[in-house]
Design a protein that fits this description.
Strand content: 25-35%
Mean pLDDT: 89
Largest sheet: 9 strands, mixed
Length: 403
């Protein structure tokens, strides 16, 4: 019996050595929880903007116990990012804590000069997770984006995060790109990354005031503005709404979106895409050169009929499907060509397809793929199926023959 008690005591002591408890705990009142991080270039290195949660005020729906905002943006400059964050301690009363960063914003000047050095720090920092979203401040600085008071979400970083999710899911002209996704595209042979853009719509001065969200029509809002094209780690240009949608279709990143086609005589028919799958492939021509293809399968619903057509007829539905297919084929091929010729950046990943299927052929192109990509043949083939036409059949403005 005594031996059993001794053995049990020894086991308990051993267990204690493997359960150190909260030795690395950090109390909330000791930390400045950073919700969004902005990085801009500066003549002395980097200008860092950190949107910090004001925990004493965030829980109140009336502007906080002292009437202040639920977030504060601190700024500092340093030779490196950690240097700038350390210098922030001269203003912030607490140590910046980066584990809850939801959005990372690059200023456009920084993005155009290259983001590799920034990503090196971000990837090395053990505090930072890899699931936050990355954006580029189009035609502006990241600091400006983090200074705007936003509606709906009380913490501006949460508003920016939520708007990325909803616009990517429902609009299809933007994309939620995480650090892990961006680095994977950057380092993978035969592909270039993209990042969504965000810019101010309105005056920065008015957007910094709480009065901005006390109006029915806020003076200043944050607006997502398509995709930024990277070649390597450098931003080389911007894509508007149609080409950004084309990129996302090819990348299989479209959830739902809307579109329209012209009627045979006059007016339009609107449709909603509710499923889109894309398959990329490559074959070799007789001379050994690659020929790429993008095959799209689209499921859509008719959501607006603004012309005199009888959508109860199967032949009319077949014709609509054919017209939608033609529009997809023409638009996506056009915008693939635009990216090829204007930027020479393979944001679609065709080079990766070649690398996987014909590794020996890829070796001939990998050192100059950007230039070779400009001349590559790419075929687009779309198959559209209309599943639903709504709860009514005929357009409400269609004339009814009276007896």
């Amino acid at each position: 019996m005594l031996e059993r008690k001794i053995l049990l005591s020894v086991l308990l002591v051993l267990c204690l050595t493997f359960t150190p408890g909260c030795w690395s705990r950090k109390e909330l009142n000791e930390l400045a929880v950073v919700m969004a991080l902005g990085i801009d270039t500066h003549e002395d290195g980097y200008a860092i903007s950190a949107q910090v949660l004001n925990s004493a005020e965030a829980g109140s729906k009336k502007g906080g116990s002292m009437g202040s905002l639920p977030a504060v943006t601190y700024k500092s400059v340093g030779k490196t990012i950690p240097d700038a964050l350390q210098r922030m301690l001269s203003m912030a009363p607490r140590m910046p804590y980066l584990s809850h960063v939801r959005v990372l914003v690059f200023g456009e000047d920084l993005a155009r000069s290259g983001v590799s050095d920034v990503l090196d720090y971000i990837s090395r920092n053990h505090q930072l997770r890899t699931d936050f979203f990355m954006l580029v401040a189009k035609n502006g600085k990241a600091a400006e984006i983090l200074e705007v008071v936003t509606p709906f979400e009380y913490v501006p970083a949460n508003s920016l995060y939520s708007s990325i999710l909803i616009s990517e899911k429902k609009w299809a002209a933007t994309g939620k790109v995480t650090l892990q996704q961006f680095v994977t595209e950057l380092k993978r042979s035969g592909s270039d990354p993209v990042l969504s853009g965000v810019q101010l719509s309105g005056s920065l001065a008015e957007g910094q005031s709480m009065e901005n969200v006390k109006q029915i029509n806020p003076s200043t809002l944050l607006q997502h503005t398509g995709l930024g094209v990277f070649k390597g780690d450098r931003l080389v240009g911007w894509l508007g709404e149609p080409p950004s949608k084309a990129v996302n279709y090819v990348l299989n990143r479209v959830d739902t979106t809307t579109g329209f086609i012209a009627c045979p005589d006059d007016g339009i028919v609107g449709f909603a895409v509710n499923r889109a799958d894309t398959t990329l492939d490559v074959k070799l021509n007789a001379d050994g050169t690659p020929a790429f293809s993008a095959e799209l399968e689209i499921e859509a619903d008719v959501n607006a009929v603004q012309c005199a057509i009888d959508i109860s007829q199967p032949a009319v539905i077949d014709e609509l499907e054919k017209d939608i297919e033609d529009k997809f084929n023409a638009n996506i091929r056009k915008h693939i060509g635009l990216v090829q010729q204007r930027y020479g950046a393979d944001v679609f990943g065709f080079g990766e397809v070649l690398h996987r299927k014909y590794p020996d052929v890829w070796k001939k192109y990998r050192d100059h793929w950007g230039e070779s990509f400009k001349t590559m043949s790419i075929r687009v083939d779309t198959d559209v199926a209309i599943r639903r036409v709504g709860s009514i059949i005929q357009p409400l403005n269609q004339k009814v023959d009276e007896p």
